[in-house]
Amino acid sequence: MKHPVFEKLRIFAPGPTPVPEAVLLEMSKPTLHHRTKEFIAILERVRKGLQFVFQTTQPTYLFAASGSGAMEATIVNCLAQKDEVIVIDGGKFGERWTKLAQAFGLTPHVYKVEWGQAADPKEIEKLLKTHPQVKAVLFQASETSTGVFHPVKEIAEVVKKHSDALVVVDAITALGVCNLPMDSWGLDAVVSGSQKAFMLPPGLAFLALSQKAQEARKRSNIPHFYYSLKAEDKAALTGETAWTPAVSLICGLDLVLKNMQTVGLPAIFNHHQRLAEATRKGLKAMGLELFAKTPGDSVTSVWVPPSIPEGKKIISLMRDDFGITIAGGQDQYKGKIFRVAHLGWFDELDMISVLGALEITLKKLGHDLQFGKGVGAAAQSFLESGQNG
Ligand SMILES: Cc1ncc(COP(=O)(O)O)c(C=O)c1O
Questions:
Q1: Residue-by-residue DSSP string for 304-320
Q2: Is 66 a pocket residue for ligand 1 (Cβ < 6 Å)?
Q3: Which pLDDT does position 386 carry in this prediction?
Q4: Quick check: CB of 330 below 6 Å from ligand 1?
Q5: Which residues form the domain of 72?
Q6: Which residues neighbour 37 within 8 Å (Cβ) at sequence distance 6 or greater?
Q7: Atom of ligand 1 nearest to the CA of 71
Q8: Where are the alpha helices (DSSP H) in the chain?
Q9: Are the C-beta atoms of 292 and 147 separated by less than 8 Å?
Q10: Residues 304 and 363 in one domain
C-alpha cells in the first residue's frame, strides 16, 4: 500500500470511469427541485444533447438506473410475452440480454459467439431464416467483457433485409466512443449509461427508440411500472420526468453534453481511436497478445502472459502498488485476461502512466520485458497519429 499522503487513485476500468473536476463541482451544487423552471430547462437541453450523441431526431429517455435499467425498459415496452428474439451472446453482457429476455417470458434464440470473436452477420441471416417470427435482434455494440466490437452496421443491414425485427443495441460502452449513428444505420433501440463515455458516476441510463420501436410499443403486454415509457411521454409534455430524476447527475450530464457538442463527435471518436491504438501497440510491445480479434476503442483486453501463472496478481499489484484499478477477466477468463479501459475522460498521459505501471508490475511478477518498450510504442503511436483532435 502506498503512503496515504501520496496515494492517488486512478481508475482504468471500463466503468465507472473518471469524472472531470468541473463535472464533480457542477454536481456538488445545491440540489434543484425537479419540477422547477430551472431544472426543466436543464432537462430540455440534456434531452437534445443526448439526441446529438445518439445521432437521432427521436426522443430520448433517461432513467435513474444503471445501464441495465434501460435494457429492461426496452424489453418491457417494445416486446410482448412469448415473442421470439435473437440474442447475440459473445460475452457477459450478451448473456444479460438472454437473462432479461427469459425473465420477461420471451423466447430467446441464442447465437453463441466465442468470447473474443465478433458476431458474423451471415449467422444472423441464417437464424432469421430459421426463425421468421423473430421480433427483435438484441446485441452489444461493444462487448465489454471481451473488448470486442461487433459489426453493428452490417448486423443492422442483415436484420432489415431479412426481417421486420427490431435492431436493439446495447451501446453502453460504445456510445460516445465510436461512430454509431442511430438514425442512418437504422438502429431501433439504443441503450447507454452515465458511467462510461459520459464521464459521470453510475446512476443514469439512457434510451432512444426509432419510430418503428415506438410503434412496436402498441403490442407490448409485459407488466411494468417504473420503466413505463407511457408515463415518461406524458411527463415529457411538460418537460418533466415521470418519477424523481437523478437531479445532480443530470446537472453533471448537462455540462458533459455541452462539452461534447463543443468538441464535436468526429474529434471525440478520433480521440478514442488514438488512445486505443496507442494502448494496443504499447501492450503488444511488452510481448503481450491481444484477446479481442476485432477490438473496439473502449477497452483493450489482453491475455495474461504464460510467464505469469497467477493472472489475478496483476490486478491486485496494480491496485496495491499504484492505486490503479484495471479490470480482470470475467467467468472462465478470470485470471486469464485483463482489460485496460480508455473510454471517457482519459488522455495520452493517462495511457502512458498505466502502461508504465504495467511494465513494472509485469516485470515484478516475472515477465521478461525491457522497461520503456510499451511506453515507447505508445508514445510513438501518439506522435504518429498527430495532434489530439
Ligand atoms: C456492454 C454493457 N452492457 C451492459 C452493462 C450493464 O450496465 P450496468 O452495470 O450499468 O447496469 C455493462 C456494464 O459494464 C456493459 O459494459
A1: PPTT-S-THHHHHHHHH
A2: yes
A3: 85
A4: no
A5: 31-263
A6: none
A7: 4
A8: 21-27, 37-54, 67-78, 92-103, 121-130, 152-162, 182-185, 211-216, 229-236, 247-263, 265-285, 312-322, 348-364, 373-384
A9: yes
A10: yes
Cell, residue 313 = 496478481
Cα of 318 vs centre of ligand 1, distance in Å, is 23
235 falls within a domain: yes
pLDDT in tens, 328-363: 999 999 999 999 999 999 999 999 999 999 999 999
Record the pTM: 0.97
**Nearest-angstrom CA–CA distance, 207 and 175:** 11
CB of 15 within 6 A of ligand 1: the answer is yes
For ligand 1, atom 14, name the residue with the nearest CA. Answer: 15
Split the chain (389 residues) into runs of 10 and give each run's mean pLDDT: 81 98 98 97 98 97 98 98 98 98 98 98 98 98 98 98 98 98 98 98 98 98 98 97 98 98 98 98 98 98 96 97 97 97 98 98 97 98 81
Same domain, 273 and 191: no
User: Helix or strand or coil: residue 105?
Assistant: coil
> What cell numbers appear for 87 in the block?
440474442
CATH of the domain at 325: 3.90.1150.10
CA–centroid distance, residue 67 to ligand 1 (Å): 5
Residues 104 and 165 placed together within one structural domain of the fold: yes
Q: How many domains does the chain have?
A: 2
Please check whether residues 317 and 255 belong to one and the same domain. no
User: Closest ligand 1 atom to the C-alpha of 67?
Assistant: 10
| Residue that is last in its domain, among 263, 278, 302 | 263
Encoded amino acid at 352, one letter: I
Domain end marker among 263, 279, 313? 263
Examine residue 389 and state whether it is found in any structural domain, yes or no.
Answer: no
Flag whether 1 is in a domain: no
Q: Which residues contact 103 (CB under 8 A, 6 or more apart)?
A: none
Locus of grid cell 460475452: 91
Q: Are residues 215 and 77 in the same domain?
A: yes
Asked if residue 298 is part of any domain, the answer here is: yes
User: 149 C-alpha vs ligand 1 centroid, how far in Å?
Assistant: 14
